[in-house]
Amino acid sequence: MDYLCERFCKFKLKYPLTAIKPIQSSEKSKKQQVEEMFDSISGRYDFLNHFLSLGIDKIWRKKAVANLKPLNPKYMLDVATGTADLAIECLKLNPDKVIGVDLSEGMLSMGRKKLSGAGLSDKIELRKGDSERLLFEDNTFDACTVGFGVRNFENLDQGLSEIFRVLKPGAMLVVLEFSKPRVFPVKQVYNLYFNAILPFWGRYISKNNSAYSYLPESVKHFPDGKDFISHLQSVGFSDCNMKALSFGICSIYTGVKK
After folding, report:
1. Residue 162: which of 138, 146, 143 has the closest Cα?
2. What does the domain layout of the chain look like in residue ranges?
3. pTM: predicted TM-score of the whole model, two decimal places
4. DSSP alpha helices (H): ranges in 67-155?
5. Range with the lowest mean pLDDT among 93-107, 115-129, 149-163, 193-207?
6. CA 62 to the chain's CA centroid
7. CA 62, 66, 67: angle at the middle one, nearest 5?
């Protein structure tokens, strides 16, 4: 038993979240690979999101944004905004402005087309940027959201620290992220779907061999639940909470900058 524990600990140290990349054999950084990966699948991303989640992702976003309603935020930041689905959901809070930031110009391009078609370009501004080096002044935003993006941070605590820095005192961070179900039989069905069915269809439709193999690996190594709460607290967030959705398939995390 001691030998197994030692081997497990070595595995965790050898492959932390920061080391899980779309292509493990590549010498490129995780950040570079994530940017290239999302550029390559950007044209099919929205379809795959809704198809592979059976549309449940839309419900998750609504529930995530609802946490911010009591704050009535007027100037909002959406980190890892992708094609701006979560930023668009934030408009239900009637903010004056939402700024979306993402590494992938391909995803931002698709998002801008979506905003233009819906007449929302005056409410949401999309910018290319690094979540770990946000180009905003301290104490700028009333709220920040991150939807399925913190797993892709090269340095998780650095990304969270940057978000904390640009939020005003009293502002809230809401993170929507996949988690690992632990209840039978949801755990078993989830693992089958996430590790076999989703990667197969993801690769087939996106024509990208690594993107939907990387997804289950990044979720597997993500410090979910109480572990992620600890990360939020370590960078300064208070009143941190977690709410599990869909039997633990996804979770909403919240934290406040005091």
Report:
1. 138
2. 30-256
3. 0.88
4. 85-90, 105-118
5. 193-207
6. 15
7. 130
Task: Note whether 111 and 89 are within 8 A (CB).
Answer: no
The CA distance from 209 to 213, in Å, is: 7
Dihedral angle computed from the Cα positions of residues 47, 48, 49 and 53, in that order, rounded to the nearest 10 degrees: 120
Report the chain's C-alpha Rg in angstroms. Answer: 18
Buried b (16+ CB within 10 A) or exposed e, 244-255: bbeebbbbbbbb
Q: What angle do CA 204, 252, 242 make, to 5 degrees?
A: 135
Q: Which CATH architecture has domain 30-256?
A: 3-Layer(aba) Sandwich (3.40)
Q: Bridge-partner residues for 76, per DSSP?
A: 98, 143
Looking at residue 19, its pLDDT comes to 65
Cα 4 from chain centre: 32
